[in-house]
Design brief:
CATH architecture: Alpha-Beta Barrel
Strand order of the largest sheet: 1-8-7-6-5-4-3-2
Structural class: alpha/beta
Helix content: 40-55%
Number of strands: 8
Largest sheet: 8 strands, parallel
Number of domains: 1
CATH topology: TIM Barrel
Shape: globular
Radius of gyration: 18 Å
Distance between the termini: 26 Å
Oligomer: single chain
């Protein structure tokens, strides 16, 4: 499938049972809800998908499920989050053979690579596969920064086609455009910078909280990217406390709890993560429930 690199590509959770086993049926049900809401693509096995806690065969099962549910209606990407360049290249080839439409590539996990090593990692994985690749830059979480200058250097790798920008610095969008023109499609990677990213000309959004509020998410992004910033801002003011849940250390637990509250999934995560408890749980539930109770009225088209 040819991917149109714009719009909403949610980073989908991997649903588990309470005993931490995969719940592929629940994952499939949620994917159907997202597709029905009008998402433009699906990113499986990213950070929200708890990639690094899954065994290789479990990753294959999740991807097979997503591809079966999608049936070509939207492109399905797999996150690539391996500890070594060799492992990432091997996984990329495996996903290509499985039928994935594209990849979201992270730096090698655990080791804090320098710029030379990071560029070499992205080149090697790009050359291992024919799939198009969304490059994921999140120095806050992974302590490796892909700068505008590095993307300029990587521009000769044709299948590095898009960037998920999660540095937290909105200037990056303009810096990448300044150095690279429209060479890459640019995606907002942090939920609480979605309005700012749209205003600066981002092509798409890899969303987290949109998993629980897909209609509101679609409406907001459509308004924000069609020049209707005032109307978008009204929704954003309601949405922002929820969106900030995506930028916390326990964002996986928080977003899965939101899915449970709206009936789209369960809160179960895989250790070392644990469902949140006590006063922390009460505080997060208050944010989720307040947002749910005060959902904005949306135009009929949404």
């Amino acid at each position: 499938m040819t991917i149109r690199w714009n719009g909403i590509f949610p980073a989908v959770t991997t649903q588990f049972r309470e005993d931490e086993s995969l719940n592929l049926d629940a994952t499939a049900r949620h994917l159907e809800i997202l597709i029905d809401s009008g998402v433009d693509g699906l990113v499986m096995l990213g950070s929200l998908g708890e990639n690094t806690t899954l065994d290789p065969e479990e990753k294959r099962q999740v991807m097979r499920t997503a591809l079966e549910v999608s049936r070509g209606r939207v492109p399905v990407l797999s996150g690539v989050a391996e500890n070594s360049t060799r492992g990432a290249a091997r996984y990329a080839r495996e996903m290509e053979n499985l039928g994935a439409d594209g990849l979201m590539l992270l730096p090698a996990m655990v080791y804090k690579a320098d710029p030379l090593e990071t560029v070499a990692h992205f080149r090697a994985v790009a050359r291992s596969t024919g799939l198009p690749i969304l490059c994921y830059n999140n120095p806050i979480a992974y302590h490796v920064d892909l700068t505008a200058a590095m993307f300029e250097e990587l521009a000769d790798e044709e299948n590095l086609v898009a960037i998920k920008e999660s540095s937290g610095d909105t200037r990056r969008i303009t810096e990448i455009r300044s150095r690279c023109g429209n060479r890459y499609a640019l995606f907002v990677g942090l939920d609480d910078l979605a309005l700012e990213g749209a205003a600066l000309g981002a092509d798409g959004w890899v969303t987290g909280l949109g998993l629980a509020f897909p209609r509101e998410n679609r409406c907001f992004w459509t308004l924000a990217t069609s020049g209707q910033l005032e109307k978008a801002r009204e929704i954003y003011c309601w949405y922002l406390p929820l969106l900030k849940l995506d930028t916390q250390i326990k964002f996986v637990q928080y977003i899965k709890l939101a899915l449970q509250e709206v009936g789209y999934g369960a809160e179960w995560v895989r250790a070392p993560r644990r469902p949140i408890r006590g006063t922390e749980r009460e505080a997060i539930l208050e944010i989720i429930r307040r947002g749910t109770e005060h959902r904005p009225e949306l135009p009929e088209a949404f």
